[in-house]
Amino acid sequence: MKHNGIEFDTYFKNYPDEKGFFGKYGGSFIPEELQKAMEEITEAYYTICKSSKFISELRRIRREFQGRPTPISYLERLSNSLGNVQLYVKREDLNHTGAHKLNHCMGEALLAKYMGKKKVIAETGAGQHGVALATAAAYFGLECDIYMGAVDIKKQAPNVARMKILGANVIEVTEGLATLKEAVDAAFMAYSRDYKDCIYCIGSVVGPHPFPMMVRDFQSVVGIEAREQFTEMTGELPDAVVACVGGGSNAMGMFSGFLNDPVDIYGVEPLGRGTALGDHAASLQYGTEGVMHGFNSIMLKDENGEPAPVYSVASGLDYPSSGPEHAFLHDLGRVKYDVVTDDETIDAFFTLSRLEGIIPAIESSHAVAYAMKLAKEMGKGSILINLSGRGDKDMDYIIEKYGIR
Fold first, then answer.
1. Against a cut of 0.85, is the pTM above it?
2. Catalytic amino acids?
3. 68-99+220-402, what's its fold?
């Protein structure tokens, strides 16, 4: 399949290029000393990703420890309530630890062991990446430091407790808005002080090369499984695929399986409370090109050109930029990026819970909300949603803020 001059049958061989660019997005904009550490990671990854020993070990872990493949569920009652379009969900909420994050965390921790590192460092927003990395660290016998904004620590108390039970050191970040962006800042600073003995396990398809590529590759298992499962279930491909986008790891994992197919692909960003700067985190919709956290992408900026304050009801989506590959696919027009509000998201959260017995993460509820709107517009066909995580972590916050609807 060809789209805007790009051959998608050879896409993954060509993007990113050897310097980590997806077109003009990506790259590595970090201090020289840290760049040497990134090159060490890149070399190690390129070596082991072709190693049958590494691949077979990761496959064994996914099968025996993570519980993969995760299933696809047909949402019959929700579909019937919306019309003739049939909705399905890829159940990453059933992946061990309750979200897609473990897919790349087990890979990153296995890479850390291969490199002889003793510790893994990471940031987390909703806490799912932190829990997943703490789980991987416990599995491989590594130390683990997780940086988390004070606001998110309060919102995501169950995940904070899980990280601590798993043996991770949870470090509270109080600077700025005390959310995901500040947690990334703090984790990067800690890594720059201790990079010889540890590896920074970035939680999304963001950061300097090789992380956008590496996390995408580890997450591609979602799209590969989903494509095979959906075809087996229905005898055809879905008409549309939908996933939420903050940094964008769950979305790139899902999209990877369908980029070369005649399938409409939608990435859903958080519009939050509205279009005013500071009320949302829809960088691809309202941002401009810029560099932050070591990579070039599309980001939301303040009047000084610095990363703007952002907001979302979902702790895992309140990031002022998006992965460079998403920026590339946005410019190509291969993926359509759109938005839903907090109110639409919370309505979808309760609707899926009541009609299907599945309590979704608030992040995933953005994708469900958009798919519900899309179903009404399409009139016929099928939609596959990436249900990137479960809502256990969000229930106390939802009840406190919205009550039981």
1. yes
2. 101, 123, 388
3. Rossmann fold (3.40.50)
